[in-house]
Write a structure and sequence with these properties.
The complex is a heterotrimer of chains A (256), B (743) and C (311). With 256 residues, chain A is mostly helical. Chain A is built from 10 helices and no strands. Chain C is an alpha+beta fold and 311 residues long. In chain C, the strands form 3 sheets. In chain C, strands 4-3-2-6-9 form a 5-stranded mixed β-sheet. In chain C, strands 5-11-10-7-8 form a 5-stranded mixed β-sheet. In chain C, strands 12-13 form a two-stranded antiparallel ribbon. In chain C, helix 4 packs across helix 7. Strand 1 of chain B pairs parallel with strand 1 of chain C, so a sheet runs across the interface.
Chain lengths: 256, 743, 311
């Protein structure tokens, strides 16, 4: 286990990821230009790079379940939130469709569903071994994460939930993820057997498996989903309420 | 219950003439639905049990005064500390805090009463019922298992006496009462605010009690779920928490502390609420950083649910879990610290009036800071591995619970007694109480930190004559006696001032919140007229028209949610916590290799599927009934409603049939952990369907009888509950019927 | 029992040292925080008292930057404490070896100590060689108990059906107080034990002695006592190596006489106390699972004569 080597050589230059990020940045620039809040976008891209190209990604590649879980949290919870913050302040979706009113319900289901769905044992394993499934997983996590954060972090006030509803939205989402985290932490259930299976000789970071015992690795994965993830939701709840207290006129009431 | 008492009182109500009240004052108190009287009842019950719990504490300390003492035997001692803990938490602290909230939340928001006055009366009378159940154990052998009742010690093989059953039943009753109070408080704050009282303007006392009510709503049902399982273990031979059939003693601790840690904040937050009112008034300044005090309360409430495992650092959860819960637990120190600093900053550059109430509040700040800091040392797992279950821990939580909560309640009592009674308490006697209490408290518990360091474990009925142990324990006991003396002086002060205290006037402390804008005591209807509400301190604005507070937000009409729906949503939240706990327990238990979960393959999915369809379609028919009612179509409403009830009955019949078939195959509650947990989850769901059916039948009858002619019935609110029960069934199906097949 | 109980601030093992050092740092940090809060409160009390005739103070209602500062600083302190905690946890909670040196089993209300490697069984007294880490597996025969030796090691619960592991080491020879710290029923108070750390040579001698079977009764009285031990159902709960009994419901008596205390710390192991115990155990230790066998004086004398040979 050579940590220095991992930190230096664990990076990859996956053309798909680099290409995807570049194309997305170009599109974003075309659409919003200087109105976009670029600092947030750079942060979002940095998180994506961290999740997909860094040594973390190298370890998530069948070596450590906890690394895989970190990757998920970054892709589902952090990057999409930063992305929405990068949108211009006045940006709003001009959708008159009645479904738009149901968007929060959809977003909530997307946020929780993505986490549970991709941790069904078969899918978790498939994503770990098959390239296309992994790509699908990555894209869906980013997309569903964006959908989840929209009712909270949308730039325009009218797209956002009332603060009280927002708090309930985030709190129940936190419970939804904690439930899975608790089960992973406190019980011997095994959902990603890939992280127990012997590693191919070609896997360069195989020895990092020894960092934690299999049980610890799984527990750390569950705990990541439980404690840090909930901390993100709690921070968002704080943001939601401080926005409410800071609001000059509108959103006078918590809920209706 | 309240009804039965109310019936003979006939026309007695809050508005009747003074003469009639005097004539029937006993009945008037028994049947009251007035939030102020109920608040006083809460406080009286709290005081009564404070005396009992205090005497228990005194006997504990007397037994421990010297080494190898034999004043009380081991079993008596163990019963004493069990009763002391249970009494102080459930019969003293919670009633006292609920009592103050009951009395002052409606007043502070300019309301006439609580949202559900009769429910309020039920809640308060559940306290003597719970207390009676608990103390009935005197005749059957007292519970000797600690207020935490760790399995397997609390199980029949190790504690066969019925005392534990009475303890369980008492806690279930008190838990239900607490949830009802919390639902009531939430609905009151959301739905009964006076015009202009926006949620951003409510006093911190209201806001923090509002936030706290949500903790109650989520935490108490978790305990009740665990208690029910323990009762099944003891009375019906299941083994949820017994190792012999794959049950788990650790599961009890998870459930207990998932309730127990939030419970700490259920006690602490209302104490913060009181101090956040007292400190500003006697510093003659608004609270420093209102928003930060308000938000940090929310942060505490949320975090309180994510840190329970720090009570289990020594049970071997593994290093990974320990590490995460160290940081999570330490995080709570931040919002708590923010509060302490804000109270301090409120005093800074104020004009501090050192009344007895203020003295208690200041002592609270100091002592709570100490308790909080020793709490941080417990959050550090490595330190906890040494100090847990030692007297250092006893000292820590008494600094929070007595130095914090009790001192805050005393501050609140000194502050609000003039409002409640119309008479001032004696400051001279108050000072005696304060100093006896403060010296006594710190003597009792300060030295216990050191006793913990030198290795004295808690819950021991006696101890060896090690160097220094004897005198330190004696100091602690002497301190306890001083506290008892403080209690006597306090009681005398209260009684004396009720008889001949000087008249208080409306606003003796020049307070700024609405309770001071009415007479002392307030009339039955609370207010004659309210001052204009533009800021958080309406009475400051009235008294200082030359420099009023800057207005907080605009003063448009309030958006007031529907009272019925609000309460049902809150109830649903608490039911969700209950079922969440049961389902978590189901998964936890059935992951054990001894659970016999392979029996899940013998479940008849086809039959279950069919009767589930009936339940799900009942949600659809109920929706149609609601739509018909919205159109004012009574026959349609009744038709769809009748159909809904029919579908629900078919579901229950299907479930009964399933039970009968399983019973014939020998799959009974006791047979295997899988079956125990199967009946636990499905049985409780069935029970909720049954309750929903009763509610629907009542509404059906009332609508048919034309009770709601031209008005909306509570159908929509009850409908919410019915839909919720259906959704729970989706989770039950997935968890109980399908999940075990994949494990 | 009397003498020194020992304190967590007089550590005698690497693990206890790590915790005690962390505790000192933490207490200093806490003391500093407390001094700031108490100082501010005290200063305000002295400086800003209300006096008759003085008007209301300036109505300051908050300061945003200040709030941020005193949110961020505690956050930094918390992170610091967390980082400091990690190495102490590492030292105090080493990974469990596959085979433990000792198995310690909590009973209501005594401790059973088994050495699978060295082949001896004893009770309420753990002998270890100085300076060597001894790995322990903790089990329970009934309810939750908790193993705690303040000067040597962290506390850890014994959980039914789930073993826990800890490491015990003493840097100096001596007797270290241990106790059950989880409430476990009537006699939780008298579930004490001692850790006796000896030089390797002394420890070796002790082990050799413990492994021996009980000697044959030297006198007629003792022989009668041994017979009583078999006949009077003593063997149903107690074992004596070479004589009989395979139950661990009660302590193994093979080397009863070599132990310092009776009743898990209740009283010194003297012939008088042993007589007191045998006469009526529940009178000496109320709640104890051993009943009063209502022995006659003669039976008592014989049993005592025999038990005294079990050194």
């Amino acid at each position: 286990m050579n940590l220095n080597r991992l930190l230096l050589e664990g990076w990859s230059a996956n053309p798909w990821v680099l290409g995807g990020c570049s194309v997305f940045t170009l599109l974003f620039a075309r659409a919003f230009g200087t109105r976009a809040r670029w600092r947030w976008l750079i942060a979002a891209l940095a998180v994506v790079v961290l999740a997909l190209l860094s040594p973390l990604a190298a370890l998530a590649d069948g070596v450590l379940f906890s690394a895989h879980m970190t990757q998920h949290i970054l892709l589902l919870l952090i990057a999409p939130g930063l992305l929405l913050l990068a949108l211009p302040r006045a940006f709003t979706l001009r959708v008159a469709h009645p479904l738009a009113r149901r968007l929060p319900l959809l977003g909530w289901a997307a946020g929780i569903g993505a986490m549970w769905f991709w941790h069904a044992p078969a899918l978790c394993n498939a994503a770990a071994v098959s390239g296309p499934v992994r790509a699908l997983q990555t894209l869906s996590l980013l997309a569903l994460g964006t959908l989840f954060w929209w009712p909270i972090l949308a730039p325009a006030e009218r797209d956002r939930l009332l603060p009280g509803h927002g708090v309930a939205y985030l709190f129940t989402a936190c419970l939804g993820c904690s439930a899975l985290g608790m089960i992973l932490t406190l019980t011997p259930v095994e959902i990603c057997s890939v992280y127990q299976a012997p590693l191919a000789a070609s896997q360069p970071w195989a020895d990092f498996r020894g960092l934690f015992s299999a049980q610890h690795d799984r527990q750390i994965g569950g705990l990541l989903m439980w404690i840090p993830m909930c901390s993100v939701y709690v921070a968002a709840i704080m943001l939601e309420l401080s926005r409410w207290h800071g609001a000059p006129a509108a959103a006078e009431e918590l809920s209706s | 219950m309240n009804h039965a008492a109310a019936a003979p009182a006939g026309s007695l109500g809050p508005e009747l003439s003074g003469e009639a009240v005097r004539a029937h004052w006993r009945l008037a108190w028994l049947s009251t639905v007035d939030h102020k009287r109920i608040g006083i009842l809460y406080l009286l019950f709290a005081f009564l049990f404070f005396v009992i719990g205090g005497l228990e504490a005194l006997f504990i300390r007397l037994q421990l005064a010297v080494p190898n003492n034999t004043l009380v035997g081991p079993d008596t001692f163990n019963a004493l500390f069990t009763m002391h803990g249970t009494t102080m938490i459930f019969l003293v602290a919670m009633p006292a805090l609920f009592g103050l909230a009951n009395y002052f939340v409606p007043l502070m928001i300019g309301a006439r009463d609580m949202a559900f006055p009769r429910l309020n009366a039920l809640s308060v009378w559940l306290i003597p019922l719970g207390a009676a159940l608990l103390h009935f154990s005197i005749f059957t052998g007292m519970p000797k298992v600690g207020w935490f009742a760790y399995a397997p010690l609390s199980e029949t093989p190790y504690n066969p006496e019925l005392g534990v059953e009475y303890w369980i039943l008492a806690l279930i009753v008190l838990g239900i009462g607490s949830v009802a109070t919390a639902v009531n408080l939430i609905a009151t704050v959301l739905c009964l605010r006076a015009p202009g009282m926006t949620l951003r303007r409510v006093p911190l006392f209201v806001w923090i009690n509002f936030v706290n009510s949500f903790i109650v709503v989520f935490a108490l049902p978790v305990l009740n779920a665990g208690l029910v399982m323990l009762l099944l273990d003891r009375q019906f031979g299941t083994s949820f928490f017994l190792d012999r059939e794959g049950g788990s003693a650790v599961l009890w601790q998870h459930i207990f502390w998932a309730f127990g840690h939030p419970e700490v904040y259920i006690l602490a937050l209302p104490a913060f609420a009181i101090v956040s009112e007292v400190v500003p008034v006697f510093s003659r300044k608004p609270i420093f950083g209102y928003e930060f005090v308000a938000l940090s309360s929310v942060a505490i409430a949320l975090l309180s649910f994510a840190v329970w495992a720090h009570h289990m650092f020594t049970i071997g959860l593994g290093r990974a879990a320990d590490t995460f819960f160290v940081i999570a637990s330490m995080l709570i120190a931040i919002p708590t610290g923010v509060k302490v600093l804000n109270w301090t900053a409120t005093m800074f550059r104020g004009r501090i009036r050192l009344t007895v109430a203020m003295k208690y509040a200041i002592a609270f700040v100091i002592q709570f800071t100490l308790g909080g800091l020793s709490g941080v040392t417990h959050a550090s797992a490595a330190l906890d591995w040494q100090t847990k279950n030692s007297y250092y821990l006893v000292a820590h939580f008494h600094y929070v619970a007595v130095g914090g909560v009790v001192f805050a309640v005393l501050a609140g009592l000194e502050y609000w007694f003039p409002k409640i009674s119309g008479r001032m308490l004696s400051e001279r006697l108050g000072n005696w109480t304060f100093w006896l209490m403060t010296v006594g408290f710190n003597a009792t518990f300060g030295i216990q930190h050191v006793l913990g360091f030198v290795g004295m474990p808690r819950r021991v009925y006696t101890y060896p004559d090690f160097t220094h142990w004897g005198w330190m324990n004696l100091v602690s006991t002497v301190g306890a006696c001083l506290m008892a003396a403080a209690g006597l002086v306090l009681a005398y002060n209260l009684l004396r001032s009720l008889r001949r205290g000087t008249s208080a006037g409306d606003n003796p402390w020049q307070g700024w919140t609405l309770e001071w804008a009415t007479s002392s005591p307030p009339p039955a209807h609370n207010f004659v007229a309210l001052p204009p509400l533009r800021s958080r301190r309406p009475l400051w604005d009235s008294a200082h028209p030359e420099q009023p507070d800057p207005p907080v937000g605009p003063s448009g009409p309030l958006l007031i949610p529907d009272r019925g729906k609000t309460s049902v949503w809150t109830l649903i939240a608490s039911e969700a916590a209950f079922f969440g706990t049961l389902l978590f327990a189901f998964i936890y238990l059935n992951l054990s290799p001894h659970s016999g979960r392979e029996a899940a393959f013998s479940l008849d999915l086809k039959m279950t599927g069919i009767f589930s369809l009936f339940l799900f379609s009942s949600s659809f028919t109920l929706w149609r009934a609601e739509a018909a009612e919205a159109r004012g179509h009574r026959a349609g409403t009744l038709g769809w409603l009748g159909l809904t009830i029919g579908l629900g009955v078919v579901f229950l019949a299907g479930q009964a049939m399933e039970y009968v078939l399983l019973y014939r195959e020998g799959a009974v509650l006791q047979s295997k952990l899988f079956w125990s947990s199967f009946y636990l989850v499905t049985g409780f769901h069935g029970f909720h369907v049954f309750a929903g059916l009763i509610a629907l039948l009542i509404v059906f009858g009332l609508i048919a009888g034309g009770r709601f002619a031209g008005r909306r019935s509570p159908l929509v609110a009850i409908g919410l509950y019915w839909h919720f029960v259906d959704i729970v069934w989706v989770f039950v199906l997935a968890t109980v019927y399908f999940l075990p097949r994949f494990l | 029992m009397n003498g020194e109980s020992g304190s967590i601030f007089s550590p005698a093992s690497p693990a206890a040292h790590a915790i005690s050092d962390l505790f000192s740092i933490t207490l200093w940090i806490c003391a500093a925080i407390f001094a700031i809060v108490a100082g501010l409160v005290g200063y305000s009390l002295v400086r800003y008292r209300w006096r008759e005739g003085v008007g209301e103070p300036a109505q300051v209602s908050g300061h945003f930057k200040l709030e941020i500062v005193w949110t961020v600083i505690p956050f930094a302190i918390v992170l610091l404490l967390f980082v400091l905690t990690l190495p102490a946890m590492e030292v105090a909670d080493p990974p469990a070896p596959p085979e433990p040196d000792l198995i310690v089993i909590g009973h209501q209300w005594w401790w059973e100590i088994r050495s699978p490697k060295l082949g001896y069984i004893t009770a309420n007294e753990i002998h270890i060689p100085v300076g060597v880490p001894v790995s322990i597996r903790l089990d329970t025969a009934d309810v939750l108990h908790e193993f705690w030796v303040p000067r040597l090691t962290r506390k850890l619960t014994t959980v039914p059906g789930a073993s826990n592991h800890l490491s015990l080491q003493a840097d100096e020879p001596g007797i270290y107080q241990g106790v059950c710290s989880e409430f476990c029923g009537t006699q939780h108070a008298w579930m004490r034990f001692e850790v006796i750390a000896e030089s390797p040579a002394e420890f070796e001698t002790w082990v050799q002695h413990q492994r021996q079977a009980a000697p044959p009764p030297p006198t007629a009285d003792a022989a009668r006592g041994q017979q009583l031990f078999r006949e009077m159902t003593c063997v149903n709960c107690h074992a004596i190596k070479g004589v009989g009994g395979d139950s661990n419901a009660g302590p193994d008596l093979t080397h009863l006489g070599s132990r310092r205390f009776l009743g898990a710390g209740l009283m010194p192991n003297t012939p008088e106390n042993l007589r007191l115990w045998l006469t009526d155990p529940p009178a000496v230790k109320p709640g104890v699972l051993m009943p009063n066998f209502k022995l006659t004086d003669e039976q008592l004398n014989h049993l005592l004569a025999y038990l005294e040979t079990l050194q």
